[in-house]
Amino acid sequence: MKTIIKNSPIILLFILLSQTGFGQKKMAEATIKTSIVCDMCKTTIEKNLIFEKGVKEVRVDIEKKEVYVRFRTDKTSIDLIKQALVKLGYRADDLPADPKAHAKLPDCCKKEGCGKD
Fold first, then answer.
1. Angle formed by the axes of helices 39-49 and 78-87, to 10°?
2. In total, how many domains does the chain have?
3. DSSP structure class, residue 74
């Protein structure tokens, strides 16, 4: 009985914090316009961007030239995700692709001004 009474404040604190949302993961979604042109671009982005800290989901739409990202706001931001995309060699909204990374992309990914438009 003494143990329960001693632990009551801890249990009450835990219940209070869980009800206020403290410690809950805050998720956000974003769609980024990019310069992809082929399935190889899609594969490169999906396989690499998912390893960025806080990124939980990545989907690429080649026809729309968009990358959909779902991420934890306590771990990353949309700006950091865009920078990661730029470092892969692709444009991210208004940010141009990193020229060195773009040069390392397969030839099929460099078609039609990929990374430069």
1. 130
2. 1
3. T
Q: What is the pLDDT of residues 33-72, one digit of tens each?
A: 999 999 999 999 999 999 999 999 999 999 999 999 999 9
- Domain of residue 101, CATH code: 3.30.70.100
Cβ within 8 Å of residue 68, ≥6 positions away:
29, 30, 31, 57, 58, 59, 60, 61
**Tokens in use for 9?**
């404040």
In a domain, 84, yes or no: yes
Is residue 2 a part of any domain in this protein?
no
Its domain, for residue 50, covers 25-113
